[in-house]
Amino acid sequence: ESLFGNILGIVDVFAFFDRTVYSLKNITSYTINLISIWQNEDFLIVCHFREPDEIGHIYGVNSFEYRNQLIKNDMQLGRLLDTLSGETIIIVLGDHGFGCPNQYKHSCSPNTFIVCNVSIPDNLFEVDITPLILNLLSQ
Fold this sequence. Notes:
Order of helices and strands: HHHEEH
Strand order of the largest sheet: 1-2
Oligomer: single chain
Distance between the termini: 31 Å
Largest sheet: 2 strands, antiparallel
Low-confidence stretches: none
Shape: globular
Mean pLDDT: 78
């Protein structure tokens, strides 16, 4: 909690799943529950699936393990998308791009892979994500 400074006092819900209870299904189900509670309100949810990054660093982005993890994540993302209304802005991103000669470093791949259901600029970097979200929320 200390990593997040004083933000915990201003967010409605902060859920951290330690490794003993964390699973893709658990985080997805928890997020779907929040969506159903807030379905008639404006809300922002940040849902983090950590597996692709961890698996990509361990096995490499061309591995069977990484590909299999992306399939699992895609299934959970599909569950989330099925619960959202047509007016929802959806942003899917990674913490960095790939293409480094060394799969354990981020420094040579600053691009953030992003998919969005509204028009956004091309070639976004990690530092562009917060301004993008703030801009979309202000429209």
